[in-house]
Amino acid sequence: MARPAYQRILLKLSGEALMGDGHYGVDRAVIERMAGEIKEVADAGVQVAVVIGGGNIFRGMAKAAEGMDRATADYMGMLATVMNALALQDAVESLGLASRVQSALHISQVAEPYIRRRAIRHLERGRLVIFGAGTGNPFFTTDTAASLRAMEINADVMLKGTKVDGVYTDDPVTNPQAMRYSSLTYTEVLEKNLKVMDATAITLCRDNQMPLIVFSINKPGALLRVVSGEDEGTLVKG
Ligand code: UDP
Q: Which of 61, 233, 60 is nearest to 160 (CA)?
């Protein structure tokens, strides 16, 4: 590959992306493919950090809607993200890519605590850093955690791997007329109420000039193309 367009990236993977065609949990073949794509990018010399979601296992809001205490449900959601982080670590390490899981909640037997400077050190040494437990606070999402970590580690760009290959004018699954935006501003995203990330995450990126690329994680090779600076997905910036 030509020289990568970015030196350090923060990749946000939703928990649902790990399910494949299933309805719950982690599909081994899917996570192995993602691990392979991440390794390709790391092998190209790009420093990679990942924030992983937990929606394939537990979503706080859904359980709160059923009557559970929201904060407790959110803590369970954060624990679900740690499970996904360990699954991804296992998959990348089986390919020979060194990695560390850092958790925003203390679970010292299975993950390092989140320490910003240590995370940066791991990245500089070529290790994949997987951030688990979101922000460590209930009432937030892993999209917000990803925006926050992207800023904290001084990532050049935040990449959001989703099921669709960018941001559309409408839901492309239900509306065949929907058009993909090649670029947008954060203010447009908020004004048009486009479903990119929650408003907290968007505002954080906007206020700190963190560019975001939304792309399809299901499209083989898309991650490498994004990192190479090719026209893939939708670019959102300030
Ligand atoms: N969560 C939280 N605080 C955070 C990040 C996540 O409370 O900073 C909880 C929340 O309950 C959420 C769950 O963890 O529903 C899983 O995260 P998310 O829904 O963002 O995962 P994704 O949709 O990316 O799979």
A: 233
